[in-house]
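Quick one: examine this chain and its backbone structure tokens and tell me how the chain folds. Here goes:
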Amino acid sequence: MSSDLVSRLRGLLGPAAVLTGAADTEPYLTDWRGRYTGRALCVVKPASTAEVAAVVALCAQRGVPMVPQGGNTGLVGGATPDGAGRAVLINLSRLNRVRDVDTDNNTLTVEAGCTLQQVQDAAGSADRFFPLTLASQGSCQVGGNLSTNAGGVNVLRYGNMRDQVLGLEVVLPDGQVWNGLRGLYKDNTGYGLKHLFIGAEGTLGIVTAAVLKLYARPREQATAWVAVDSADAAVALLGRLRMECGERVTGFELVGRAALELVLKHIPGVRDPLPKPAPWYLLVELSDTRPGPELYDLLERILAREMEAGLVPEAAMAHNRAQTEQFWALRENISEAQRIEGISIKHDVSVPVSRIAEFVCRADEALAGVFGAVRIVCFGHVGDGNLHYNLSRHESQVNADFIARTGEANRIVHDLVTELGGSISAEHGIGQLKRDELSHYRSPLELDLMRRIKDALDPAGLMNPGKVLKGRG
């Protein structure tokens, strides 16, 4: 049966678009972190929505599982097949056309295989701005961004990926195509179907195209690297900036000293912008559509005042684009530096902004009480309450023993997050990594509602099985 299916797929897509050899398929079968490696019957690379629909319909008829995949930059194993080798992995990188740019409507219609950088470039060519910004934007793809409801550094001003979408085109688990590519800012005709597929991690269907919002292009930015003594001080500064600058606050990133030290250790060409180490740093950015020096002067004036008041010990302003990029490189390379350093226990959590300092203090204390000295690499998007709170030990053998106790560490961190009214997954999704955790922390009613939706759209459980919901598919 498997050879017949592969033959049929080659007939649909052409031989070059169906990969079966180990050397050809290997790059698609391991996640970016190297934590999950699976097997697949084959990897297919359709070049159009019609081809995706034909592949899905054939697999559905044969009862063959399907794993959608974009740029394979996810961090929770959501695009990696299991080890059974029965699934067809559907890679969407060839669906990479910009279908339409509508500057009067401020929309961009793109296919799911477009990289985020491609979308940003298309917006820039139209003198517009697409706000989603991720460290992996040169390789991550729109379909993956939609399927995980990606966040990034501009959520404070513009919102998550969900907030950037007006319409979708989706191939359903039986091969039907739902064309919801409507560039409408107001549409109250029944249920908001697009929201079912955003953040569903490919378990309900395969997004093949989207209508995205565009914005006026920022023409002036002011950026600073700021030292603070505590997470409390970071939250206090955020509040003062938002009161005085409003929506011009587009970036407010928290970086712990341990995170910065890993970047300085592993990433060539970076340097510490400040002469003395501090427990915490903030990467602060203001943006405006109007050019001129006012924005720089405003940020400099606020920081000078807060330094006099003792809230900010030290700060460095970026005087040109190169310095701005140097500051951002410190923040954007933290994940890569951690990957080079070695495996750690990852947490992508969110709490109300008002509880960030409490979370950091209590989590640090609780972990030290159980494990002793733990290297805590904490960084994230303070403006929307999203922290990446990652744990490891310095010595490799001791770290291996610590990683074996991931369940204990997760329980400490996630119990506290839940107590503070937070979420165990802020922007990376659930995938395989947090599937068991989701079943532990979501209420029985919420899980039942999710299962009903899954059963309604994918009754055979063939679409990205083993992801999000425990025991589904």
Remarks:
- The chain has a mean pLDDT of 95.
- The CA atoms of residues 455 and 461 lie 7 Å apart.
- DSSP finds 17 helices and 18 strands in the chain.
